[in-house]
UniProtKB/TrEMBL annotation:
Chain ranges passing through the membrane: none
Name of this chain's protein: PQQ-like beta-propeller repeat protein
Region (Disordered): 1-24
Gene3D superfamilies from the UniProt entry: YVTN repeat-like/Quinoprotein amine dehydrogenase
Domain Pyrrolo-quinoline quinone repeat: 156-341
The organism's taxonomic lineage, starting at the top: Archaea, Methanobacteriati, Methanobacteriota, Stenosarchaea group, Halobacteria
Native organism: Haloarcula nitratireducens
């Protein structure tokens, strides 16, 4: 068997640096295609179902300088969300042609300044059998009483296949992820600095009215990092207290699992946020992020549960745990499979950890794929796994590692 890794070039982009710059790529599997949204806003379709390198099929070029940061297959095509001055949600046909586009800046406003983290941002897109749902937000800073006030404007949209907006849900908080199941859409808010003070809102998919809400009840703006709906409730990753929760319908707590709660390490108290969760009827996987100190942002300590995937049984018991190598910006999921892209560990900057790990909810790790650069987006369907690699240069090394390319791997 050839040792050549099946990849395809995505062009050239400035390399990532030691610290995360936020998402700037996305990938989705749609039929026989892997559709990649790139850092320059373009969309590229590749045939990936056959063994061997991904085969370029089409390339849709975009005017301006957006980044595609979220993507999901939708009604025979794919829907993508931008980080850009317009904060566009675009639906493309299977050949890359644009079916429709909606600019979120119409509702949440344009950027306060033309800097990356102030641009309108489509944090997540998910689909069900009838609609596409998208969460868009805009962040700004305002002087207030001698201090800087953080403010968000955000909207959750329900789109029909033809692009009609069927309803919206507004909040002055920061949506980070969506989960849809049956007639419910769950919205996780990771920061709530304004009047909206609920980390989780579950909406009726027909009209967008709130069915129930939940909050970790912790001090501060941090609330929920991710949510996954089940048939009778939800699992969520709490930023408020660094725990995983299982909720019943209506928000009643069934169990609470400490994941990366504050711990004394080398004389300093540190913690890590649980950023992601994937749930099935047979269990769940939580994924934690970077270590932070209780005071300030810099630390030499490492929380023992940072950058870790934790498998949990339906009753909240720990089954397994495994390193994911570095910070994961998002998950690729299919049934019980969870693909975790490992981007840089900005404190240790260990390039040997770069790669993609694939887990089964019940059984733990089922595949590991090493890369030269950092992996920033992934998708999985059956035996096929695709991942976006980006180049990186660490400030204390000065060497560029990796390239901007699409990987195609097989779990078999």
């Amino acid at each position: 068997m050839s040792s050549r890794v099946p990849t395809a070039s995505l062009g050239d982009i400035p390399p990532a640096r030691s610290r995360q710059r936020g998402r700037r790529s996305a990938v989705a599997l749609a039929g026989d295609l892997a559709v990649v949204g790139t850092a320059d806003g373009d969309l590229r379709g590749f045939a990936v179902r056959d063994e061997g390198e991904p085969i370029p099929k089409w390339h849709h070029e975009t005017v301006g300088e957006p980044s595609v940061v979220s993507a999901a297959p939708f009604d025979g095509g794919v829907v993508v969300g931008e980080r850009s001055p317009r904060g566009a949600i675009r639906c493309h046909e299977s050949d890359g042609a644009v079916r429709w586009r909606y600019d979120a800046r119409t509702d949440i406003g344009g950027p306060q300044r033309d800097t990356r983290f102030l641009l309108p941002f489509v944090a997540d897109v998910v689909i069900d059998g009838k609609r596409c749902y998208a969460a868009a937000r805009r962040y700004e800073r305002r002087p207030e009483g001698g201090e800087t006030e953080r403010r968000f404007e955000s909207l959750v949209y329900a789109f029909a296949p033809n692009g009609t907006v069927e309803w919206t849900y507004r909040a002055d908080a920061s949506p980070i992820s969506l989960s849809v199941r049956d007639d419910r859409l769950a919205v996780a808010y990771n920061r709530c600095p304004g009047d909206h003070q609920r980390g989780l809102v579950v909406l009726d998919t027909d009209d967008g009215t709130p069915a129930w809400t939940w909050d970790p009840g912790a001090d501060g703006q941090r609330r929920v990092g991710d949510v996954a709906l089940l048939g009778d409730g939800a699992l969520l990753a709490s930023h408020g207290d660094y725990c995983g929760y299982r909720l019943g319908d209506g928000g009643a707590r069934r169990w609470r699992l400490p994941l990366a709660t504050p711990r004394a390490v080398d004389g300093e108290t540190v913690y890590a946020y649980p950023n992601h969760v994937r749930a099935t009827e047979s269990g769940a996987v939580f994924v934690t992020g970077n270590t932070y100190p209780e005071g300030g942002r810099e630390t030499e300590a490492r929380h023992p549960a940072e950058h870790t995937a934790v498998g949990v049984s339906p009753d909240g018991g720990r089954r397994w745990s495994s390193s994911v190598g570095g910070f994961a910006g998002g998950l690729g999921t299919d049934g019980s499979l969870v693909a975790v892209p490992g981007a840089q560990h900005f404190r240790d900057r260990d390039a040997d950890r770069h790669g993609l790990r694939v887990f089964d909810v019940a059984d733990g790790r089922v595949g590991t794929f090493d890369t030269d650069g950092i992996v920033t987006a992934a998708a999985v369907e059956g035996e096929t796994v695709v991942a976006v690699e980006e180049p990186v240069v660490y400030h204390d090394e000065g060497r560029e590692r990796g390239a901007y390319r699409l990987h195609r791997r097989s779990l078999s």
